[in-house]
Design a protein that fits this description.
Elements (H helix, E strand, L loop, with lengths): L1 E3 L6 E7 L5 E3 L1 E3 L18 E7 L17 H4 L3 E5 L5 H10 L4 E5 L22 E4 L1 H11 L5 E6 L8 E2 L12 E3 L10 E10 L5 E12 L2 E13 L3 E11 L5 E10 L11 E9 L1 E2 L15 E3 L8 E8 L6 E11 L7 H4 L5 E9 L15 E10 L8 E11 L5 E8 L5 E5 L5 H4 L7 E5 L2 E3 L8 E2 L2 E6 L23 E5 L5 E9 L4 E9 L4 E5 L6 E9 L4 E8 L2
Parallel strand pairs: 5-6, 6-7, 7-8, 11-17
Antiparallel strand pairs: 1-15, 2-3, 2-9, 4-8, 5-9, 10-12, 12-15, 13-14, 13-16, 16-17, 18-30, 19-26, 20-25, 20-27, 21-24, 21-26, 21-30, 22-23, 22-25, 26-29, 27-28, 31-34, 32-33, 32-35, 35-36
């Protein structure tokens, strides 16, 4: 079935000739919202294709463009190449525009292009496109530019070339989650992956025999290679192509699914012809890709609602017919605060609180975009973590008070929550679940700002980079009949903790653990009468600690204590 194109090309910087450096280069570009009058590069009609020419300003520095250009006759009607540095982007662009340049290609002074190109003093006077590439890519182009002509294309490539098939991350069926507990797929037939996706024709010519291929590897070994095709695809159209399901008798370790768009003619923009999706089986559930070595979610960006109502939650859903095999131990979370605050202490994570919540989610699920209601969430447990260090962007593990035993066929929601508008949560866009939502009613993730639930952020794909840690329930080996509840006070506390011991006699062993599992303190205590056990915490650092008490009669108690300083 052919439909209107989902996307309409990509904003690219593409070298066309010579072939030695031909290809697409990662870029940033100026937009009107940042104080420019430049045309909208997302519109194909504003693209520019021409020869690259260095813009010289007569200064000792090489092509900075901070002074009027002295080679205007060479720049006129061409794309001016200018180096970043010494003055604002807009002055460089204005000097090139004044000499008749059609566009400006800036070469950055580093390789990080995560930058908002502000218009500065002259941005509103600049109307030609302005794009920037990395220092490394600029050096590659410059090495050739000094010896022979280089032609390039800057702008949205929709319709710019006759043959241009395209796929992107939001086009495909993907696994149920990027990381799954292996215990949920331990037997044949318990887990499979549906494969297929959209292919777009962003070229100007009809395409015959358009194919979608999926290749799957496990730990580097190919285990699946299937292709399907359609007979034709008109310019501007898209088509969904289905592929056979991926089945394994047992799932374990790391997999990669690579989708590729193919045809019988040579594609003129190959950078958008393939897309790779990771999948990992271990002990965690995450809808964001995880590092196979650590099982921790991979952070790409950090997010917080623009209109912060507070508190802010990011949550992931969990449901499976075999969930009864698992218990949840806690959650992985990564936070970040702005680094451009006037006072460094204002932007540090140190001392900030993260709360976690585990819910049984009982709402009727109508579709993959169903959001929770307060009445549909039954609290199972919660946890907390106070940063002792400024661990910007690093994952921390926040345990629940005790393992939460799951039940087959039930749905659960696990959330992380923060309380300041400057506290951002980790997010990853590499695996998008939009196409899955058309074929499944399973929700993946939701967010909550203040009292209102949302299906993520507008214009942002992927999922929160949080994870749920699990263990196989039968491996815990705890007799719940031997567990007793103790309520220490005050909690949080600074220097001293009292633990009521009424009803207990004899010896007991107290062990205190940090959240990363390190033994902090161990002591033998005697119990008896109506007394309280007093624990001196004067020498303990601020943070959350797990207390474990074993009584000589075989009973035990576990609880968490927050120490503040």
């Amino acid at each position: 079935m052919t439909t209107a194109a989902i996307g309409q090309g990509n904003v690219v910087v593409q070298v066309l000739t010579p072939s030695s450096i031909a290809g697409s280069y990662t870029n940033a570009y100026a937009v009107a919202a940042s104080g420019w009058s430049v045309a909208d590069l997302t519109l194909p009609e504003n693209a520019v294709q021409n020869e690259l020419v260095l813009g010289y300003d007569g200064s000792a520095a090489d092509s900075l463009g901070c002074e009027p250009l002295v080679n205007g006759s060479e720049v006129a009607g061409k794309i001016a190449v200018i180096y970043r540095g010494s003055c604002n982007f807009s002055l460089k662009a204005l000097n090139a525009q004044n000499e008749g340049a059609l566009a400006v290609l800036l070469i950055s002074n580093g390789d990080d292009l995560a930058i908002n190109m502000q218009g500065g003093d002259y941005g509103l006077d600049v109307t030609i496109p302005v794009a920037m590439i990395s220092q490394t890519n600029g050096a590659q182009i410059r090495a050739v530019l000094d010896n022979e002509p280089v032609t390039a294309f800057i702008g949205n490539n929709f319709g710019a070339f006759p043959n241009n098939l395209s796929v992107d991350g939001f086009d495909f069926l993907v696994p149920a989650a990027a990381a799954l507990p292996r215990a949920l797929a331990a037997n044949p037939g318990e887990f499979f992956v549906s494969l297929g996706g959209f292919v777009h024709n962003f070229g100007s010519a009809d395409q015959g025999t358009v194919r979608l291929r999926a290749v799957v590897s496990q730990e580097g070994t190919e285990i699946y290679n299937e292709v399907a095709e359609v007979s034709s695809l008109a310019p501007g159209d898209s088509v969904f192509i289905s592929l056979p399901d991926l089945n394994q008798d047992m799932w374990d370790g790391t997999y990669e699914i690579t989708y590729s768009a193919e045809s019988d003619v040579e594609d003129e923009f190959t950078d958008d012809n393939t897309y790779t999706i990771p999948m990992h089986f271990s002990e965690v559930l995450s809808y964001a890709p995880v590092d196979p070595a650590t099982n921790m979610p991979i952070t790409q960006i950090s997010v917080v609602p623009a209109e912060f109502e507070g508190p802010f939650r990011t949550c992931i859903s969990m449901s499976n017919p075999n969930l009864g095999r698992l218990s949840v131990t806690g959650m992985y979370f990564a936070g970040r605060t702005p680094t451009d605050q006037a006072e460094p202490l204002d932007s540090a994570l140190t001392g900030r609180l993260v709360a976690t919540y585990a819910y049984l989610w009982t709402d009727v699920i109508a579709n993959a975009y169903t959001i929770p209601t307060d009445g549909g969430l039954a609290t199972l447990d919660n946890g907390s973590y106070i940063y002792e260090e400024d661990l910007q962007g690093e994952s921390v593990f926040i345990p629940f008070s005790e393992p939460i035993e799951l039940a087959n066929g039930q749905r659960y929601l696990f959330c992380t929550e923060t309380y300041e508008s400057t506290f951002r949560h980790a997010w990853n866009e590499d695996v998008d679940y939009a196409v899955n939502a058309d074929y499944s009613i399973e929700p993946t993730s939701v967010i909550r700002d203040g009292a209102t639930w949302f299906n993520g952020f507008n214009g942002l794909g992927g999922a929160p980079a949080i994870a749920v840690g699990t263990v196989v329930t039968t491996s815990i080996g705890i007799d719940e009949q031997d567990r007793v509840e103790l309520t220490p006070y005050p909690n949080p506390t600074r220097d001293q903790l009292r633990i009521p011991m009424k009803g207990f006699t004899g010896a007991a062993a107290l062990r205190i653990f940090s959240l990363d599992g390190q033994l902090v303190s161990e002591q033998k205590v005697a119990t008896g009468g109506d007394q309280s056990m007093v624990v001196d915490l004067t020498n303990m650092s601020a943070g959350t600690y797990q207390f474990h008490i074993d009584f000589e009669n075989g009973q035990r108690s576990d609880f968490r204590v927050v120490v503040t300083k």
